[in-house]
Amino acid sequence: MSAPSMMRHFLAVALIAIPSVAWADPLDDQVSAAYSAWNDAFNRGDAEEVASFYTGDASFLPATHEVIQGPDGIKKFFSGLFAGGVTDHALDLMRTAGDGKIVIAAAKWSAAGKDAAGKATRFSGIATHVFERQPDGSLKLKLHTFN
Predict the structure, then answer these.
(1) Distance between CA 134 and CA 102 in Å, rounded?
(2) Which among 69, 105, 113, 108 is positioned nearest to 91, based on CA atoms?
């Protein structure tokens, strides 16, 4: 085997032996940061701050089948949840897609609350989010639905 052939063979074997590296996805990182800030506001019971994460023309479609438009309606919805004792919210990112302007994300959500009998319980489901990138680069929710 010639020296160049041996070198190509060595490099091919070396590349196969290198463990694969998971590269961070910028959209995943941006959505995870948005989720973290949203969860923080929720877990402080701050309905006004939660509503600030939505665009002025946002649509919020909760599991109640209501169609809620805009931050004022969203604030009212979350104020009711907080008054009902819902706490300890988490969003765990499953997937993102999008471009520079629109980002779509799916997540598992969970929260603590009380069941119909007043017993402490954990609720969970799946959420879909459509974010719109703002002029400052931040992401705001344009559409939010969950089950």
Answers:
(1) 10
(2) 108
Does the pTM of the predicted model rise above 0.85?
A: no
Distances (CA, A) of 36 to 11, 92, 105: 42, 9, 14
Tokens for 132, please give them: 């719109």
Q: In Å, what is the CA distance from 142 to each residue of 13, 69, 104, 130? A: 49, 10, 10, 6
b/e per residue 101-128 (b: at least 16 CB within 10 A):
eebbbebebebeeeeeeeeeeeeeeebe
Cα distance between residue 53 and residue 40, in whole Å: 12
CA 136 to chain centre: 19
pLDDT 10s per residue in the chain (147 long)?
554 444 444 333 333 444 444 555 799 999 999 999 999 999 999 999 999 999 999 999 999 999 999 999 999 999 999 999 999 999 999 999 999 799 999 999 999 999 989 999 999 999 999 999 999 999 999 999 999
